[in-house]
Design brief:
Elements lengths: L5 H8 L3 H8 L7 H13 L6 H8 L4 E6 L5 H16 L3 E6 L4 H11 L6 E4 L9 H8 L4 E4 L10 E4 L1 H14 L5 E5 L5 H16 L9 E3 L4 H14 L5 E4 L4 H11 L9 E5 L13 E4 L2 H17 L9 E4 L2 E3 L9
Helix pairs in contact: 1-2, 5-12, 6-7, 8-9, 10-11
Length: 339
Amino acid sequence: MDKINIKRLAEELNLSTSTISRALQDSYQIGAATKQRVLELAKKLNYQPNPHASSLGSSRSKTIAVVIPEVFDSYFALAINGIEAVAQAQGYHVLIYLTHERLQLEQEILHAFRSGRVDGVVISVSAETTSTAHIQALRAQGVPVVFFDRAADDVDTARVTTNDTESAYQATCHLIERRCTTLLLLSISRHLSIGRQRIAGYRQALTEHGLAFRDDDIVDCGQDPEANRELLEATLRARPGIDGIISTVEMLTESTYQACYALHRRIPQDVKVVSFYNSRSAAILNPSLTTISQPAFEMGKTAATLLLKALRNPKSTLVAENVVLPSVLTIRNSTASIG
């Protein structure tokens, strides 16, 4: 049996090979009716594309990069699944890069992309990212970039986030409704928009309920779980009146529980805890954890969809794309009312 190739499809449909190629790549330049004719014939003749030859001919790698701070947080694992679901369905490979919350490593990774290694980038910036020249340089070379979860304010491109201000506000209100009066907010970055928004929501809730906002009620944590535990122990020991804790990062939850146990501060009797947390383990922690859960899988799918849309249509702009997906407060035993 003769091998079915683009030339054979072109002859059958009386179209040019370039039209066939663009139709198979879902190009915006080809009308829907023509695409449908090409796809139907390709299916009928069992056409199997040559990914290597296709990428050479189009000067594309058919690969996108996902750049994230770490994979300890189950949010990022779920988001990657969402990104891959969209990318694989459209014939793209996905490469995962970790910055380990370091700006220098993030800069090196994006600099390497300027050689044409990937067609586009989905990124959640590191906790250290204050300068965005490396992101701007990549975009200047025509590589589309989409932010998800953590975005850089001064880069005009698409971003997929959740309602961080409202979510932190809800978490704080919930603790106040459970009669907490001295609340800590655990953060890993105040300069990122995601950190500022969660602090803003926390502050708004305190103000509306007549509670004072104090800067030292925000605890700046790092990447070392042991150091975070020691910091929280010292804070709780120095301030025994603390009766509520909001963790804005999943990785800080373990340190919070450990610090409370070490000081015999009972959860929820002495301290109530809420965490931004996506892992299913929340329900089996002791006590089970009240959580703010982000729609991680959907955020990943949406970010990948926006990126691939830009790759299909180079004339499209990502500037106006700003998608906000709501998070969900799930109440469990770590904030239970006692007595």
